Amino acid sequence: MFIAPRMKRLGTETAFEVLARAKELEAKGVDVVHLEIGEPDFDTADHIKEAAIEALRDGKTGYCAAPGIPPLREAIAEDAGSRRGVTIDPDRVVVAPGAKPIITNTVLTVVDEGDEVIYPNPGFPIYESMIHFVGGKAVPLRLREENDFRFDIDDFLGLVNDRTRLIILNTPHNPTGGILTKRELEVVAEAAVKHDAYVLTDEVYLNIIYDGEHESIYSLPGMEERTILLDGLSKSYAMTGWRLGYGVYPKPLVEHITRLNINSISCTSHFSQYAAIAAITGPQDHVKKMCAQFKERRGVIVDGLNSIPGITCRKPGGAFYAFANVGGTGWKSADLARDLLDKAGVATLNGASFGEFGEGYIRLSYANSIENIEKALGRIREFLS
Ligand SMILES: Cc1ncc(COP(=O)(O)O)c(C=O)c1O
Predict the structure, then answer these.
(1) Which of 2, 253, 281, 365 is 20 to 30 A from 237 via CA?
(2) Nearest atom of ligand 1 to the alpha carbon of 173
(3) 174 lines ligand 1 (CB under 6 A)
(4) Last residue in a domain, options 281, 305, 328
(5) Do 37 and 73 belong to one domain?
(6) Which residue has a Cα nearest atom 13 of ligand 1?
(7) Are residues 299 and 365 in the same domain?
């Protein structure tokens, strides 16, 4: 059967494959601790659910505006702008079913065949997948463990040039938990202006920062004209299954992104958007509580990993992932991740599934209870000994 050759260039997100394998094992009676999928283990707050139920009762069950309903675009503009000290025009906001389509639609819209795209490596695999899919040239920017998984400024300056069409940033970062500082952002902003490149800043972990303040390239002077700000409700509000994300775009891109919405999804679920308004404009104490729990778990998992011979782990500044260096165990990360699942009942991800510079690491999501994290650590220790 014919399959368009471009499909060979489309990558994937391994977390979903490992989750499927873990579920298979569970169906056979194996006890698995899930540290693979990047999903808060908390339920969506009640007031958010109530808003969706009320919207359903109120008949918000049909199609709606392709770029998102006006009150949600206004709420996002107000919230995203005030958190970054800028004013955002709601007309620049496009809502989508999750943050992922913002990556897909941005790359489809601004990257042509042969254009260079700089992206973090290790990094969220969908960046590289989409660059290859559209025939762009993927230019990995190494994140260095010795820099707490920030990139080296000289590495970056050696990669950026007049063929660079797009620079992708992700802070706080998946899979390392690294956080970019104002210094790196200023260097990227200056280079983007000099080489007339777009910037896509993926800030879906904005609400999950443990130490210090979030810095966004979107706040730097002149950057809103060339920056796509990506955020969503999945991680911040424990709403992964609701499928709610958004992009804030330079004005000329909005009509193209909206047309992609019309061609692919028509619109984002109408009643879900009322839940998004309640999440963004309502009480935020549940978000702070979730973050405090992640912080406690971070301590348990990082200390535990560092106490296992052959493993070292930096303390992540944000998100809910530990990116453990397993070089000292003598294992290749793919083999270790596979055997930890098959032989020890601990689901983790191979660091290399986040790109070539992830080899030698495994990612453990600590969006799980302390009890389960301790159980997993015990199993990893026993397996390696
Ligand atoms: C860095 C990053 N960006 C985007 C996404 C996609 O989020 P969503 O579930 O809202 O599509 C994820 C999800 O894991 C992520 O880690």
Answers:
(1) 253
(2) 1
(3) yes
(4) 281
(5) no
(6) 38
(7) yes
The CATH code of the domain that includes 310 is: 3.90.1150.10
For ligand 1, is residue 175 a contact (CB within 6 Å)?
Answer: no
Within 10 angstroms of residue 8's Cβ, the number of other Cβ atoms is 9
Domain hosting residue 315, numbered range? 5-43+285-384
Number of structural domains (the chain) is 2
pTM beyond 0.90 = yes
* 234 and 131 within one domain: yes
Please tell me if the CB atom of residue 98 comes closer than 6 angstroms to any atom of ligand 1: yes
Q: Per residue of the chain (385 residues), what is the pLDDT tens digit?
A: 999 999 999 999 888 899 999 999 999 999 999 999 888 999 999 999 999 999 999 999 999 999 999 999 999 999 999 999 999 999 999 999 999 999 999 999 999 999 999 999 999 999 999 999 999 999 999 999 999 999 999 999 999 999 999 999 999 999 999 999 999 999 999 999 999 999 999 999 999 999 888 999 999 999 999 999 999 999 999 999 999 999 999 999 999 999 999 999 999 999 999 999 999 999 999 999 999 999 999 999 999 999 999 999 999 999 999 999 999 999 999 999 999 999 999 999 999 999 999 999 999 999 999 999 999 999 999 999 9
Please tell me the distance between residue 101's alpha carbon and the centre of ligand 1 in angstroms: 9
My answer on whether 317 and 352 are in the same domain is yes
Q: Which of 37, 204, 233 to mutate to test the pocket of ligand 1 (most atoms within 8 A of CB)?
A: 204
Q: What is the DSSP string of 111-174?
A: --TT-EEEEEES--HHHHHHHHHTTPEEEEEEEEGGGTTEEPHHHHHHH--TTEEEEEEESS-T
Q: At which of 240, 258, 281 does a domain end?
A: 281
